[in-house]
Amino acid sequence: MELKGQVAVVTGAASGIGRASALRLAHDGAVVGLLDMNEAGLLETQAMIEAQGGQALSVPTDLLERSDISAAFGRITDELGPVDVLFNNAGGPARAGTRSFPNANVEQWDEVLALNLRAVADCTREVVGDMKARRQGRIISTSSEQAYRGGPGFTDYSAAKAGLLGFTRSLALEMAPYGVTVNAICPGVIRTGLTDQMPEEHIQASIASIPMGRIGEPEEIAHAVSFFASPGASYVTGTYLLVAGGRTLH
């Protein structure tokens, strides 16, 4: 229970990596604020946390709306207390699907950059001032192996996730004198709702590209989140951890 008495916020907490990480942070002792547009999924995550003896607060939030974000963090602070751990997890490729750069329109780029980069900055802005004043805090964000590897049809997503690594490093330098750590996790292919919708041949092609020969599980990302949030990571900042089964070694 290394996080007992602390408040953690997880974005994209209705499913997948966000849900697994919220469960893990609650297991570690934190009270968890859950943010996502999917209210039904949030309530399921909250029920799972409460079933294991934890405490959580579901706050349906549109992370593309700054006013929604501000209201959500205001409610969390009022009801749970100051935020000690922020896990910026929400993100993903364009809802319209992948497109080659010549065929990707400006609206698609705006959507992907807003969700994967701007929303991270907006959520971080809500907590960083208080963390600085209290001289404690953990900011963790989900980047992607795509920030390293790139991929056809993912120019927008790869650019956003690479930008997130730059944001992480720069903010870490600003916050280090105040004891606030800022780190990122770069997942590879992880079993989520998105991968479950992939054609079987695409899944098998992905597995063939992974030296460990399997797709990762959301809980394996949650372990990394738990480490970065823990007291044991107090001297780790401005770095990013690849959790990709060796896929980036090719």
Give keywords:
250 residues; alpha/beta; Rossmann fold; 9 helices; globular
Explain what the structure shows.
With 250 residues, the protein is of the alpha/beta class. It has one domain: 3-Layer(aba) Sandwich (Rossmann fold). Helices cover 47% and strands 15% of the residues. The chain is built from 9 helices and 7 strands; from the N terminus they run βαβαβαβαβααβαααβ. The protein has helices at 16-27, 39-51, 66-79, 106-134, 146-149, 155-175, 193-196, 200-208, 218-229; strands spanning 7-11, 31-36, 56-60, 85-88, 137-142, 180-187, 240-243. It has a 7-stranded parallel sheet with strand order 3-2-1-4-5-6-7, with helices on both faces. α4 (106-134) links the parallel β4 (85-88) and β5 (137-142). α4 (106-134) runs parallel beside α6 (155-175). The longest helix is centred in the middle third of the chain and has 29 residues, at 106-134. The radius of gyration is 17 Å and the shape is globular. It starts with 6 loop residues before the first strand and ends in a 7-residue tail after the last strand.
Annotation, overall tally of beta strands: 7
CATH architectural type: 3-Layer(aba) Sandwich
Number of helices: 9
CATH topology: Rossmann fold
Instruction: Please compute the radius of gyration using only Cα atoms.
Output: 17 Å
Oligomer: single chain
Overall body shape:
globular
Helix content: 40-55%
Mean pLDDT score, rounded?
A: 93
Which homologous superfamily in CATH is the superfamily?
NAD(P)-binding Rossmann-like Domain
Kindly provide the name of the CATH class: Alpha Beta
User: Strand pairing plus helix content: what structural class?
Assistant: alpha/beta
Order the strands across the largest sheet as they lie in space: 3-2-1-4-5-6-7
Along the chain, the helix and strand elements come as EHEHEHEHEHHEHHHE
The low-confidence runs, each spanning 5 or more residues with pLDDT under 50, are: none
Question: What is the percentage of strand-forming residues?
Answer: 15-25%
Number of domains: 1
Distance between the termini: 38 Å
Mind describing the biggest β-sheet?
Answer: 7 strands, parallel
